[in-house]
Amino acid sequence: MSLLTLPLIFINLGGEMLYILDQRLSAQHLKEQRIQRILRDIIGQMLNDKFVNELFSPQPVYKKREMKYVFEKLAHASIMKLNASSMSKLYDLMVMAFKYQLLHCREPRDILLVTYNHLDAMYTWCIGSKEHEQLLETTKLKILQTYGNLNTSKLQAVRLSLLTFLQDVHIRVSIFLRDHVQLPSGRFILLPEGEIVQPYDIPGVIKSYKNGSETSRTFFHTPGKYSITKDIGSLAVRGDRAITYGVNMYATARALKTETPLTRSILVSEEKCTIIPPYKDAVVTPAVIPVEVGQAAKELNALARLIGVGNGVSEADTFRLTLFDDFEDEAFSTHNLLMENYNDFDIRIVPKQKDESHLNQIKREFTIPDVVTADSCKDSEDMLQLMDAIL
């Protein structure tokens, strides 16, 4: 698995989270100034320099549970508070939207364009804030430095790592079901058609080589419709990305594929399938998933220090928000039953005395302007309890 996968997961999921929050906050008629403050606070915590530098260092991908925990804390970095149900559905939507985009990339390099589309959209909420605009530009340059010189095989390794992270996630989302791009089972429909970026060839040709020279070509029929394009998209700080995946599909006309005879036949065959359980009287039992306490505690402790979420937000300044009471694009999780047994796991971390001053320094550096500081929060030896007390 590639050690350069984590930044792309984090930035793209973060971008999707911002899209959903913007849509729901606007639908509930919050003042534009307050919405901008919420989203800007999240962007500031998400892309702060120290965290981004740590994020882009080569490292394995975090486990799904730990990644969800990070975004739960990140979502609460502003004056907004989400209940557990809304946070779970929010994360499901984030993951499935990014999975859809990843599966439709024309080539591995398109993953970078999708990431840039997410970062480009963040400028909308950072207009007038040079500090936040600088964070976005720095992050784009970091992406270019990290991935810009990778050859196709290394980018493909990154793509495979992303797919591995998402491969067991099959959550039905009504926005995808309605547009006939997702099956009732939660799997996406991938049609044999689309753009082929040069210098790649359209499927349908077998080339034979000898001593490095082409000797013959064999042509065969393919059922799909393909076209060659020279527009590979720009990785400049401000440029044309050439693809629509990664843009805000809740605010613009969606570029999802509509129903075709092929998708209709796939949907019909899916409905006719009979799922036979492994045993006649099988009973679904929630799985008990072991927790690697030591490793998880170490990773969450590091993330807590770097993100510095929830600093200085007073209880009087916060408000609670239920996102999906009337949201038609709500995600329906097929694995909630399996999640019940370990959603409330507790990892206790007792930091060494010498680390307390470092933690307090990090907290002061990441304090969000114009809000009350977190100095009034009670002391705690447990890092996670401390974060909960701040929030």
UniProtKB/TrEMBL annotation:
| A GO CC annotation given for this chain | cytoplasm
Where does the source fall among the domains of life? Eukaryota
Task: Quote the InterPro entries the UniProt record gives.
Answer: OSCP1
Please identify the protein, giving its name as recorded.
Protein OSCP1
From what organism does this protein derive? Oopsacas minuta
